[in-house]
Amino acid sequence: MESKTKNKQSRQQIERMAQRAFAGEGLATGDEAVRELKEGWFNAAYAIRLAGGREVILKIAPPQDADVMQYEQNIMATEVASMRLVRQNPAIPVPEIYFFDDTRDLCDADYFFMEKINGDNLEHVKAGLPAATQAAVDRRIGAIIREVNTFPGVYFGYDGNPNLRADTWKAAFLKIVEAVLEDAAAKDAVFDYSYDELRAVVLKHAPALDEITAPCLVHWDAWNPNFFVKDGAITGIIDFERALWAEPLMEAQFRALFEGGVTDAMRGYGKTTFTFAEQQRNYLYSLHLALVMNTECYYRNYDTDDIFNLSRQYIAANMAWLTAN
To answer: What is the sign, positive or negative, of the torsion defined by CA atoms of 68, 122, 149, 212?
Structure first.
């Protein structure tokens, strides 16, 4: 599934970027020196072999004139800052950032080089793991995310967009949801519910957000494709670009798309029961995710309708609960 936001670069340009990052060291010879990684849906990414033999990862943000959603503004800077922050905690297996360039004089966007993780993408191999190993991996993921959430913030919302911040979580979340609806309206997006219906159901349950008074770092995008595993153990977590200062229940581990019950990730996190107010927030966060998924389709112009169709189902499922309760 290809996205129109990807900022692909030539080998010659990548050579110059590597030389700047690694004190003049360029690429190895041969076709394997630059290999595009196509799993991501937003940034361009490459596996790079340097002249000295070391393998690194290059990630390039969309061009500055790319049409992105409000919450996606300056998210590469957020990613680098978040990864450098959580790397202070050895319990979080985040790769090292080797070099970050936001001058935009060599490339028309921000880019960075980071450590290549030793292991396989969990999304690709999880189904082939023994059931006990799958459960252990999920519990470990929950524990890692709990560690991410220990980093405190000074405001709620997004580092990259000051307009999506507030001193209270309720105010910030309402801004965040409204920004998604504004982004959707800018593309003439039509949901299966009116914009007013969506706003009304969020406001109905918004008082539950008042319980959250301390912002913490939330990865938000910690799905299986963003973890790596080797010999049945998690070796890395990536893609902190969509991180924000929020509450832990915004994490993917609490977004069981169409599944009920307690998961091993929840057990690993240490959160397996929910008050009614927590259920309200869980469904609000799930609705927000579904609206983001749907609206992103208008900005990225995917070549299939898979995400769009899934998001419609997800919006309907969450609206049903939020309307009835």
So the answer is: positive
Question: Which of 304-309's residues contact partners 24+ apart within 8 Å by CB, and which partners?
Answer: 304/1, 306/1, 307/1
By C-alpha distance, which of 45, 225, 220, 221 is closest to 122?
Answer: 225
CA-based diameter of the chain, in Å? 62
pLDDT at residue number 1: 45
In angstroms, what CA-CA distances link 123 with 61, 114, 193?
Answer: 23, 21, 32
Q: CA–CA distance from 147 to each of 86, 135, 234, 245, 265 (Å)?
A: 9, 19, 14, 14, 13
Q: What percent of the chain clears pLDDT 90, i.e. is strictly above it? A: 87
Amino acid 45: pLDDT: 93
pLDDT in the model for residue 180: 98
pLDDT of the residue at 6: 62
pLDDT class for 2, splitting at 50, 70, 90? very low
Taking the C-alpha atoms of residue 18 and residue 11, their distance in angstroms, rounded to an integer, is 10
Among the listed residues 269, 211, 218, 213, the one whose alpha carbon sits nearest the alpha carbon of residue 246:
218
Distance (Å, whole) CA 128 – CA 251: 25
CB 70 within 8 A of CB 29: no
